[in-house]
Amino acid sequence: MSDLTLQRLLEHGFDFLTFGLRLILSPTATPTDTKVSVANIQVGLELLIKYRLARDHGLQHICLTGLSSLSTAQIEANAEAGAIKTKKFEWCKQAFVAANAISGYERDLIDRFQRLRNAIVHFGVELPREETISGCAHVILKVVRRIVEPEADPWLSRYLPQDVYQTLIQFPSYVAEAVDDAYESGKDVRLCFECNNETLTTLPGDDHYCFSCGFRIFTEHAPYIDCPYCEGHRTAVYDSLNDDNGIYRGKCVSCEETLLVAKCALCEVEVFPEVFATFDGKKWYCEECYELVANPTVHRTLRDKAAQRR
Known about the structure:
The protein is α+β, with helices and mostly antiparallel strands. Helices cover 46% and strands 12% of the residues. It contains 10 helices and 11 strands. The strands form 3 sheets. It has a 5-stranded antiparallel β-sheet, with no helix packed on it. The mean pLDDT is 78.
């Protein structure tokens, strides 16, 4: 199957998902908007599951009997002519589960969302907007991410328009679900330096993952340490891959203060030269062991930064 056909399925799925989210996240959303929103999110979910099945097993896998024997080129030609018919969502969902693409729990989340959709769309049940968004959040946080299996994070910002993405990751009921997922799935939950939600956790694979925005990075590449300014516990993070003569730049996600961090070569303790290290008039030394903590060429930068803070 051509990459273009797959890309269309993926884009169409997120088009419906985006339309639904934009409606329901609006502060002026009406009960009618909620119905239309949930219906569109359901369609988006169906298309994304069909996208995943087609990606893994070929376009024939989601076509009705009679079309499944056609070549990929013939199926694509029929699709362009509007003469293609795909299998019902229930079959696709069962096939998706059977292929171990999602867990039984995630399948239950889809079923729960379908019941929510049926109650709102078919029977006109008016649920609180927060409750409805909470139901949508489950699907987005767990199922949609599993479907697209992003190669790069944060994945949500790649697929949603910036305005919808920013509104979603700040919406209380969505964030609440993300916080719960973070505490249930990992350890050392802390503020994310991408979205500033308390939804970044350390997963068993030893990498940081944010359940709100989808940011992921190895813990060794972005170590969290105590902030010397607001004294926040493990609220400051620095980029360990960007070594500037032994100095690393970082930021506290709590007080938003920028940091210069040096790692002592002798005792391996992270120190903040402009705050805690000892300065003898020429060089900074580690307060723990009095080892030189930075290349002399960066001392002027440290001295100037320290002077600015006084």
